[in-house]
Amino acid sequence: MLTIYGSDLSAPANKVRFAANAIGIKYEYKRIDLRAGEHLKPEFLAINPVGKVPAIDDDGFKMFESNAIIRYLADKNNSPLYPKGLRDRAVVDMWLDFGSMHVGAALSKVIYNRLFAPLRNIPVDENSLQEGLKFLDRFLPAVDGQLAKNKYIAGARLTLADINLLALFDPCEIAAIDISPCKDIVRWREALRKEKFYTDCHPEYGAALKDRLAALKAGNKS
Ligand SMILES: N[C@@H](CCC(=O)N[C@@H](CS)C(=O)NCC(=O)O)C(=O)O
Prior knowledge:
α4 (86-119) packs parallel to α6 (160-169). The protein is built from 9 helices and 4 strands; from the N terminus they run βαβαββααααααα. 57% of the residues lie in helices and 8% in strands. Strands 2-1-3-4 form a 4-stranded mixed sheet, with helices on one face. The protein folds into 2 domains: 2-76, Glutaredoxin (3-Layer(aba) Sandwich); 86-216, Glutathione S-transferase Yfyf (Class Pi), Chain A, domain 2 (Up-down Bundle), CATH 1.20.1050. By secondary structure, the protein is α+β, with helices and mostly antiparallel strands. The longest helix is centred in the middle third of the chain and has 34 residues, at 86-119. The protein binds glutathione.
């Protein structure tokens, strides 16, 4: 049995659930309360020694790092989400890595400073926020251009590279990141957000976001 350890507001953790759903794997989802510090308790550190979500326990085989996890799950299940052909796989890896290392890193800076820092009563790092926005200005059009030429990010088929970006874009609205000028990202995202692999997770994500937003508006920094 596969257990996924996550948190409803964690994009990397949600990515693992999207991928498991899309592959068709049954799993148990265990929420780790990051605000309560559950991720740093010995019970969780025994599953993931670096103390982060997501992590998985697949019949005693434990892993962390979302991209490594989704590659493992797809390979284990011979999923077309991670094609086996040399070049097809290379293109998926290319967009998966670019998605995480560049688009995801820029998004994180903006999301952290606009959403999580205020929630945790931590001063906003204006330089980091501006750097994130600057990189998004550069990278989002590149993703949009790729999606103007292809239905999915790595070509004609849905792959792990789409699932990665889809999860990373989830907090855009709440972090006031305007992706509306990127028409093909919008088209691609709208279509994928209707898919069952996504909607099966979405209610929890939406509810968790709503709670945090309400707390933010009420000035509850706890
Ligand atoms: N690169 C990691 C990122 C994991 C990560 O940073 N998770 C955050 C939640 S989104 C976390 O566990 N934060 C708790 C902490 O670092 O103390 C992945 O893709 O799995």
